[in-house]
Each structure stands twice: as structure tokens, then as C-alpha cells.
Amino acid sequence: MEESAYKSESMHENAPKKPPLEALVDFFKKDLVQYIVKRLLMFIPTLLLISILVFFVIQLPPGDYVSAHIAALASEGEIVDADYAASLRADYGLDLPVHEQYIKWIKDIIWTPTDSTYYRLYGSHHNWKYSFAYGRDVWDVVNDRLGLTILVTAIIMIFQYAVSLPIAVYASTHQYSVGDYISSIIGFLGAAIPNFILAIVLMYLSYKWTGNANVGLFSQEMLQNGVHLYNFGEFLKRMIIPIIVIGTSGTCGIIRSVRAQMLDEVARQYTLTARAKGVPERTIIMKYCFRAAINPTVSGLGGVLSSLFSGSTVTAMVLNMQIQGPVLFKALQAQDMYLAGAIVMVQAVLVVIGILFSDIALAFLDPRIRYSGGGR
Amino acid sequence: MKKRLIALLLAGTMVVSLAACGTDDNSNSTPTDSTESVQQSTPESTPESTPESTPAETTPPADASAFAEAPMLADQVTAGSLPKVEERLPVKDDVFVDQTDAAGTTLEIGTYGGVINLAGAGGSWGLSRPVLEGIIRYNTDGSYYPNVIKSYEHNEDYTVWTFKLREGMKWSDGDDFTADDITFWYYMCHLTNYDTKKSWAALKETVDGEDAWAALEKVDDYTVTWTFVNPKFPADFIENGDFKWCWAPSHYLQDLIPDSVYVENSYWEKTGLDDETVLLNAKAKGIDAATVNDLGKAVCYYWWNEDGIPCLNSYVLTTKEGNNSRDAQLCILERNPYFWKVDAKGQQLPYCDEIHFNATSEDGQDQLMFRSGELDILEVAMQDISSLLTDLGDKAQLRSFAGTNWGSYQITFNYTCKEANYAELFANSKFRQAISICVDREQVSGLLSEGFLEPGQCAPAEGNFGYDAEWENKWTEYDVDGAKALLEECGLVMGSDGFYDFADGTDFVLTIFTYTDSGADAAFPVLEQYYNAAGIKCATKDIEVSAFDQEIDNNDWYAVLGPHTAVGGLSLRSRVQPFVPIAQSAEWYGEYGTYYGTGGAQGVAPEGDMAKLVEIYEQWKSTPDTEERDQYTLDIYNLHKENLWTVAYLKAAGAYNLVSTKIKNYPELLVSDDLYQYQNIVHYWTLFKTE
């Protein structure tokens, strides 16, 4: 049933051979605009719900920033009196009921008027509040790590896709060959070994072999003078371990799913038909099978934006990479709720946007997917 | 073999410290530097108890031009961007000549240059520990001498204290350090509570039942006096551990003090600035604060964490973007070109150009960095010492800090427990004795510390003031049957399930709180076996530290393993709260402390020995005589020995640093304590590096 639908669709879509650009324009003209607008409107209630959830979940652990802060001071040998704690709570509004705290928080994020101290201090209409733990504006703290986080995660992602897609295609077209087995074994090992263990082992080996453990992405010199062309090689050298550690685990997942999908597609009737008609094997694989097979991978891209933003928390900590993940961890530990709230909120927004993007990409990849119901 | 070696080393350490500390807690204010022109008239400076650590007297270079400076500073002088070294130092007689370390060893004359690499700075105090310069400075034997100030003295009845400053001394930005900076700190930063620390007891007294504060007067540019109504004795003033500094850079902070906090005084007028202007001024100086309270705390209290604020420390936080925050992966402190200390040869200190704090996010990364030579000094746990030393050979040396804690794996009980039957049971010393003797300490030592920590009791460690072998061994003989007999004497009855119940038949369950990462969570399963064997049913609750504190404050607890504020320590001078129930602070006195902390408004009024502790403390506080004070301290100690409100199973651990052999002048044996500001006692400005 589905197959015939597919055939008629695909024949219908692909019959008039338009240049790709025109096809793309056509595609956007149709029901998509309407769909996007609808989705964008849906953002508002979704994000409000998420914000409520985020705010209340962050408040769940017993105690608040002030109690965490006082505990930290106590372990440094400083004793803090109860009056001070009370004045801190009053200052930060932590003594208000939770729902009032929430309303204050979300209102300032959405719009802080021009006539406010915050606007005069920071020149921004969106007050994400103050990070207690860092003693700075929340957005400054987030911004600090943003560039590096995106760079590192992007490099790793490019590595993941660049390595895994060719391997997956190779493995599926050479099923049960030696190469297929080798790639499967490596992929499984990558997925089975927890990232943090692999990271520790690699750091240890690096120390044993080179005398340098390569802890962190930057050498002391880079941390003082920044990364420039002359020390970029050293930076790439320090990227090796993170790439292997974070890259391999993700790679396996992609290889396995694309390979399985490809094997399905290769056995389909349309493939047989194309082959019978004498279409070159390369075209069959790349133009038809592969396009269909990466469907699940593309729908998984919804989370990419969000992970670009936060990076991989545990591995980043093990490798001492100063990216967003460890900041979130520290914020949660210190009950620095505005910072944690901001990071989680931005992640949520990015997930929502990412899902929209991946839906659009999917529609382009797979014509069976339509948005305005009943069109078929 | 390795372990034995280390054990021997530790034992040696203890013996040495014992020998050196015969008069510990005997506050001798012996000046270490020859520039001390004013002899302290305090009774503590009696020469007969001068500790061995007092350095030999030497004079500063006769010729002022004999002062030397680091090559990097000499270059700046040549380039005209920095005044000459003799203009940067205080006048010749007021320069501080640093010749011995805190343990009394004569320092080697060093060479300039290099970077000291440390692990991450950690919490709010992290950056200050190695470099903070206080009013006075302590030696490891407890003796002390004036540091930033040139001298202090008091009148006969202890109501007026005079501080003399070093003439010509400068802030790290070159501005003069004078009495105005002291009046500014006191009247604009402290009495305004802008620094959030108006609670400092050193400057406070009670007059007619009300809190009153000292009157500070500027006599001349280099002399100030603190005047009290009642006598203010050394223990509560100059020796008070909280009273670390009393100055702030008026020239830098003036536009950061809002009118909203102003208190009337005869030295400083209102700045005319509202809260928002002050925040904007701070922003322009690169200081981020959401409220004026945050700003006050940042610039008047934790000022070492903000770049650009001038100070008197040996090293100053860099203003270089990216390295100027304690949260940065690499945080840099640079040498203070105006530092006021020189070595015996007249070379301006510090020797090294910079101190680097290398933040890591996981345990063990710092060890890898130490192994590969990226760190020079690293604090390590006992268990890691032997493997690191074996691998590193002669590249690293071990430096120990004697501990001042009263024993490891402490358990204490809620004597003010809401449930009367529990409170009554805990108050019975036989119960505590049973809890103590039902545990095989030898075995616990092996299981929990790999034999590093010897069996012991909650008592001052050997070498510390008040050490008492009998106390250290009290209730340590392993005896399960004896414990059971004691529990029965307490009125507990063996139930059918093999565990004791209360006499009325209700279940007795010892719920033991621990907080995450205290190390006590690992100890519980071991101790539980012994408690169970003695017929005590237990449960554990391991919670995050802030939640833990909350439960303690709410009085919702029974017993605590590894208390957050342990009993005891170096001395009452360091902190009174761990010894005496006077604040809402330590677990062992629970609500009794709250009673005194809130002036009787909340908490439970103590009786018996708990109340006696506070009585003796009041006497301790109001006597100027050192010997008499020591006797009061011993009286307080005796009550602790008598009652053992907290039971410990093993002796206290010290602290251990691995130091690269490239680093010179790192003292052999130190004492780690809050009074000494932990790492501060290393004297980082005297360390130098050889290649």
C-alpha cells in the first residue's frame, strides 16, 4: 500500500526534470510557508511551558543558592551569620514564593524596559539575571563560552558525519565483507566504551608516549596569547583526543542506522527496477537509496543545534575542556538557578528550532512527508 | 615499604613539630624583621618564651641604593614607566626584611624570574591564600609579629590600641598607603556593612548591653588609634582570626561607595552617588554586580577576585582579559612592583614573576599536569603520595602540613534532638562510650586509610597545644561486649530482632547523616558493621551539603558522621566556634549554639558542662594574661575530654604538598590552619625557581 503510494508520489515528483534550484523554490512556495508560520506560533506556548518546567525543576532540590554558597564558604573556613543569609535572600528575591520568582524571571527575560537599571548597565532588553556563582551577568557567562563550544562541537560533528556516512555506505554495499566487519567492530567498541573511560585512557597514553597528558584544549601559552596561526597546529593536536572520544561514540550510532536503512533500501523494488533499466550503480546508491536512508539521521538533527550550544558535559569535564557543559554542571551544583535556567532555556529553544529545521529538511528529502493534511 | 617510609616521615614530622612547638598557643609577638623600631608592650612579647623560630637580627642594606629589583621591573624603570626601586619601597627603616620562613629556617637568597604553576584557585578565597598580607603574621609555633603595619601597642588598661604604618609604603598602583586608607576602610567599608562583615568581633564590644564599635582616630599619616570603652584584650583584638586587614584603597574605591550605606563620621563625607551610579562606575571599572550589596562584598571583602583593585599583596590579579578571573582556565597573578618586602640582601620580593592558577575540572587531571611538569606545587591526598613519588623520582619532594583537626571519622549526636528519648540517650556519656568502644579501630584504619591513619580519639594531635595521651586513647579499647553492657546501662533493651530498643519498646534507629563528598559516605558501611554487631540498628542519609546544613539548622537530625564544622582545631584564637557553643555553627552543640548565637531568642538553653564551656570562654576572652588564658583553654579542653561530645576513630590527617625540586625556599614542615590562612604560611613571595 505504502509502496504504491510512494511510487506514484515519486513518479509524480520526479517526472518533470526541473533543475534543483527551481525544485527548491517550488518546494518552499507550497504549503510550507503556512506550516512554518503555524509552527512559529506554536513556539510561544511551548516555550512558556518549558520555562515553567525548567524553573520549577531547578528549584526542586532542597536549599537554594544562598545555602549552597554558605556551605561552600564554610568549607573554606569562613563562618557566615544568619542575618547575612537573610539579606542575600532578600536581595536576590529568593524569599518570594516560587510563582512570584518565576513571573519576575520570565518577565525580565522577555522585556526589560529602557528605563531600568539593567538596561542602563548592560544595554539589553533581555535581563537573564545574575549568576551568583560567577558574580556576573548570566548572559555574559553564557556568551563567554559560546564561540568555543560551537567551534569544538562543530569540528566534532563534521568529523562524525564525514567519517560515518562513507563507512555506512561502504558497509551496506559490501555487506559481510572484511571491511564491513572491521567497521562494525570499531563502531561497536566506540559505542560500548564510555566516553570518559576512553578519554582517561587516551590521556594516560598521551602522557606515557609524549610526556604530556594534553589536559584541556589549550596550552598555557594559548591561554595567555590566544590561538593564532602559529600555534594552530598545537591546538589541532590537542583536539585529537576530544575528536576521537566524542566522535567515535556518535559515529557508531550513525553507521549502524544508516547501514541498516541502506540495506533496506538496496533491497527495494525501485532499486531493482532502476538497476534493470541500466541506471549506473553509483547513481542508484547515491541518488535514491542514500537519500532515503539518511531520513532517520536527518530527523535526529533536531538535537544538533542544542548540543552545539552545550557540548558534551561529562566528556568535556574529563578532558578539562572549558565549554558550556561544565558551566551548566557547576551552575546546577551551586544551585545558581538563573544561570542553569538560562542555559537549559536556550537549549530548549534550540531544540524547538532544530526540530523545525529537521522537519523542513525531511520534507525536502522525502516527498511523502506533507504538512497540510489531506493534500494527497 | 613505601607506606612505612611515609609513616616514618609523618612520625618524624610530628616529633619535630612537637619539639618546635613547646610554647604553642603562647602568643609571642616577636618581631621577625629588624626594622621593628617599636617594641610591643604586650605581655605576650616576654622574651623568655621566644620560640626558636625567631630569626637572627640583620639590618637592611646601609645604602638605600643597595636595593635590587627584578630585571623586568628594572627595564620598566629604564623605560621611564616605573619609579626607581627605592622610591617604590617604604623608607629604609620601614622596609620589611624577610629572612626566615614560618618554621624559622633561614631563607636562601633567590634569583628573579619564572612562574609558579599551581592548580585551580577554587573558591572565593582561592586567589588570596598564597598572597594575602595581613595585619600580623604567624609562625608555625603560634608566635606572631606585625606584618603590613609596622607595629601595634596598647595602653595600660587595653582600651586604646595604636597601629603604626610603614612610611612611604605604596599600593600596588603606586598610590601612597596612609592612615586615610584605614579610616576609609573602617568608616566607609566596614561600619557601613558594605563589606557585609560588620559582625567582626575584633572591633565590637558591648556597652550598656548594646553592641558598640571602636572609635578609630587618625593621629597622623602613619598612626591610627582604636579606642574602646571596655578593655579589649589581645585575644579578642589583634589575635582574632577574622581581623585580617583594616585598610582599603580610598583613591580607587571612593566612586564605588553609595550614599545609601553612609554612616556619620568625622573623616569621610558622603560621596553623593546613588546606587545606580555606583553600579555604573563599577561597570566602567570592569566589575560586574547586580546589586550594591554584591558590589560592596566584591570590592570591600573579596577584593582579590576583582582585577584592577590596588592592594598590598605580593602578587596582584592581572588585568589581562581572559586571565583576570578566578574562573578562567588560566588565572594569572603578577608581581606587585611596589611590594614592601625585601630579602636579606635587599632584593625586592617576590622572586618569581607570576603565579599561574591552572583550573581543572576533574580529580586527577592536576596530578597528570604535575607529572608532566605543568604544575610546580600540588596538594595531594595521602593515598596518592607514594605512587606519584615513585614515578617522579627526584623531580618532586614531599612537604607536609601538620593537621590541627581533632581526629578523623568523627561522629557526633544531636543533644538537642526533638525526640526526647533520643536526646536523653545521646546525653548519657555511657552511650557515647559504647559507640566509641564497639569499633575495632585497627581494622578501620586498614579499611579506610590503608593504614595511614592510626587509631585515635577526638583529641588534639601530638605536637599541638593541649595534647594529652590519655585523652587520645580514651574509650579506644575495642570491646563489643562492654559496649552492649553500656547500652543496657543506658536503659536500652535487646529486642527480638537482635537490635536494641528503647525501654518503652519503641524502635531505636541511629540515623546517621553525611554530606556528599565529605568522605564519610564511604566510612558509613564500615562503621555500620560494628554498630550492628553491638546491637545498634542504623540507617544513613547522604545529602548534598547545603541541604545537610539546612537539616542541621532545622534541628531535624540524630547523628552526623564527618560533621561540617568539626570540634576542636589549632586553638581558640583561630576560631572560637569549634570549641564553644556560641553560634549556630557546629553540629556537636546544635541548638545550644543557636541559643547563644541569637542572644537567647532561639535555640535551647544549655545546662551542665555545655553551659560551663561558655562561662569559661567569657573568662578567657576577658583576660590579657597569656598563661591565664592558656589555663582557661585547658579547662575548656578538659570538659571536652571529660564528655567527648564527638567521638573519633582515627587520628587526624595532615595536608601534603608535592613540590617540584625546581622550587626553592619551600619550608620543610608547616601547619595548615585557618588562623594561618592555610597555604599563606608557605610565603610564596620568597619562593624562587631554578632550571
Characterise the protein shown here.
The complex is a heterodimer of chains A (376) and B (691). With 376 residues, chain A is mainly alpha-helical. Chain A is built from 19 helices and two strands. A two-stranded antiparallel sheet of chain A has the order 1-2. In chain A, a hairpin with a 4-residue loop joins strand 1 and strand 2 (136-137). The longest helix of chain A has 36 residues, at 138-173. Chain B has three domains: 1-123 and 315-403 and 660-691, 3-Layer(aba) Sandwich (D-Maltodextrin-Binding Protein, domain 2), CATH 3.40.190; 149-311, Dipeptide-binding Protein, domain 1; 408-650, Roll (Dipeptide-binding Protein, domain 3). The radius of gyration of chain B is 26 Å and the shape is globular. The chains are: A mainly alpha (376), B alpha+beta (691). At the A-B interface, helix 4, helix 5, helix 7, strand 2 and helix 10 of A face helix 6, helix 7, helix 8 and helix 16 of B.
Summarize the structure.
The complex is a heterodimer of chains A (376) and B (691). By secondary structure, chain A is mostly helical.
Write the layout of secondary structure elements.
The complex is a heterodimer of chains A (376) and B (691).
Chain A: H1 2-14, H2 20-29, H3 32-59, H4 65-75, H5 82-92, H6 98-110, H7 117-122, E1 130-131, E2 136-137, H8 138-173, H9 178-192, H10 195-210, H11 220-225, H12 232-266, H13 269-276, H14 281-293, H15 295-299, H16 304-310, H17 313-318, H18 324-333, H19 337-365
Helix pairs in contact in A: 3-19, 8-9, 8-12, 8-16, 8-19, 9-12, 10-12, 12-14, 16-19, 18-19
Chain B: H1 2-20, H2 71-79, H3 85-88, E1 96-97, E2 115-119, E3 136-138, E4 144-146, E5 151-154, E6 160-164, H4 179-190, E7 204-207, E8 210-213, E9 215-220, E10 223-227, H5 250-253, H6 275-284, H7 292-301, E11 315-317, E12 330-335, E13 341-342, E14 354-358, H8 365-371, E15 377-380, H9 382-392, E16 396-402, E17 408-413, H10 420-427, H11 429-437, H12 441-449, H13 469-472, H14 480-489, E18 493-494, E19 500-501, E20 509-515, H15 520-533, E21 537-543, H16 545-553, E22 559-561, H17 590-597, H18 608-621, H19 626-643, E23 646-650, E24 655-660, E25 663-664, E26 669-671, E27 688-689
Parallel strand pairs in B: 1-13, 2-14, 16-26, 20-21, 20-22
Antiparallel strand pairs in B: 3-4, 5-6, 6-10, 7-8, 9-10, 11-12, 12-14, 15-24, 16-24, 17-22, 17-23, 18-19, 25-27
Helix pairs in contact in B: 11-14, 18-19
